[in-house]
Description:
Layout: E1 4-9, E2 27-33, E3 36-44, E4 57-62, H1 69-83, E5 90-95, H2 100-105, H3 119-122, H4 140-154, E6 160-166, H5 168-179, H6 182-190, E7 193-199, E8 211-212, E9 220-221, H7 225-230, H8 253-259, E10 264-270, H9 285-288, H10 294-314, E11 317-322, H11 329-334, H12 336-343, E12 351-353, E13 365-366, E14 378-383, E15 390-396, E16 402-410, E17 415-420, E18 433-441, E19 444-452
Parallel strand pairs: 1-4, 1-6, 4-5, 6-7, 7-10, 10-11
Antiparallel strand pairs: 2-3, 3-5, 8-9, 11-12, 13-14, 14-17, 15-16, 15-18, 18-19
Helix pairs in contact: 1-12, 4-6
Amino acid sequence: MPKLLALVFCIPLVVGSPVSAVEVGAFRFTVRAGGYTFKVPYDANRSLSVSSTQVQHAVLLLHGSSRSAANAYETLLEALDLAGLGSTPNLLVAPQFLIEADIVSNLLPTDHLFWGDSGWKEGNASQSTAANPRPAALSSFAVMDSILYAIGTRYPNLQTLVLAGHSAGGQFIHRFAAGSTVADVLANAFGVEVRFVVANPSSYIYMNTQRVVAGTLDQFAVPSSSTIASCPGYDDYKYGLQDRNNYMSQLSASQIRSRFPQQRVTYLLGELDDDPAALDLDTSCAAMLQGSNRLERGLIFGSYVRHVFGASGFANHRTIVVPDVGHSAENMFRSPCGVGELFGVGNCDPVAIAPETTDGTAPLELGPGEPNPFGSQTTIVYAVPDGRRRTTLRVFDVRGRVVRTLLDGAQVERTASVVWDGRSDAGQRVAAGVYFYRLQHGLETITRRVALLR
């Protein structure tokens, strides 16, 4: 059985309030910066300073903005139990990034690093203040690099390393995947395959100056001059590649663009995480250019990856809509899809945006719905390589249920079109929202998405 290491970030709940004393991690991970030694707390079932060849699955769970290592650790234990792996040797770790309020409230010594409320999520350097001076600083991403390298060194039988995060943690993992080279190091030095799981983040880092065209989910262009004038920093880090912090500047923008599509990333999106007025949703102009809510932003970014990187990049980046889950780390990672992504077991059956597969000499083609979004009807153009084979074109909701079968049978003409009027197979008008339509021709499939407005 492959050994598995997962890194999970939990939901941010309170920003700026100190964690309680009982939640400061029991262990300390040692890092060095500027010739000085510092410590980062973590909870674990064994010390990271002790090597082991017995660990079959290792899971590293990092908190979100609440910085509650205890909650993160509990979520990890529950996910492990649902995976049915509790009887196997496991490494369970929940590191903790602190802010200054945590240092003061818990009377922590001066060798403990701390970051800004948002800085740790973006890989910024740790802080030093007049009240709590520190002689050197270290990026939160650099700390994560050190932790992962230590695990790779001390657990030689690991085969797969999964880094996952929800909400603010999802933002951390998403940007860490773009700017860190630790995946290359672990693969080359230890033979460890690294995968990233990004769940319900509030925003994404874009690889160029294009953003989604208003009123669409899969069309992209540079915003108008008036839009840029009203939101001049829309492409600055953390939303784009301009004006990056020191850690993210270790690679050039072209290097980040080159490496990012090669990373194996799964985007988990909660079916119910679609509230444009949700608490803690990033509503800055830069974030709003990525979509109106978290679900929409995730679907748009999935299309963006395909738009920018084509099939090769899209093959490594999957988008999964998880049924019955809103903005909850616990529910996301205890769901069959979440457990499956973390531990490689489970029965996840959502609608997934998967890479296209083709096996014919002529390409299978599926166009975007026109218009998209639509109110009364949308026209879908498609092309099949062999009209003698059975072809189906079905519409699914975000839970993976068939809403409408538009085509089922042989398709004589190579190119044809079909109209969906926003109704189900029973003739009922379906609710407004995001839907998927999938063209299947033999073993070949293509999936697109369309938004219905009412």
